[in-house]
Amino acid sequence: MELTPITERFVLHWGEMGSRWGVNRTVAQIHALLYLAGRPMDAEEITETLGVARSNVSNSLKELQSWNLVRVVHLRGDRRDHFETSTDVWELFKLIVAGRRQREIDPTISTLRDCLAHPDLAAEPEGTQTRIQETLEFIETMSTLADEMLRLKPDTLMKTLGMTAKLSRTFRGSGKEE
After folding, report:
1. 122 pLDDT exceeds 90?
2. Who's near 19: CB < 8 A, 6+ residues apart?
3. Does domain 5-84 sit in CATH 1.10.760.10?
4. Which ranges carry the HTH marR-type domain (predicted)?
């Protein structure tokens, strides 16, 4: 596959953004390539298209599979593994949120709960106890909100987000924002 200037710009930018989000640049670029290609690609084609090492592609594909963002598919008459990703942006968003929750949010909630249940908590300054409790409540609330939003159909979610943005602008304009 030869990258067009627009595709190349998107793929390179997605790699840069991936780095800012804590994701390896090549991992993000491969995902962007598969997303825009909209068809299964084998590792050799990905390697040639992006001009990266084959081992880097293999490791990156494994990472994408661990996030459930890429799946292996087999094409009739071809013994090689091919890889594809969803072209549904909402499905991808949900997979990314679920993966980040599993890797980042759930362990944080567990650690905060453990801190609050620890027998030595009473020896900590009151401010420390309060901040840990407030942090736990905040993360649990935001996590519940995210779960509820992700249960909505994409059209309903977009309408909800649109109404929320209008309300926010209204409150900001009226000086009633708290």
Report:
1. yes
2. 25, 28
3. no
4. 22-80
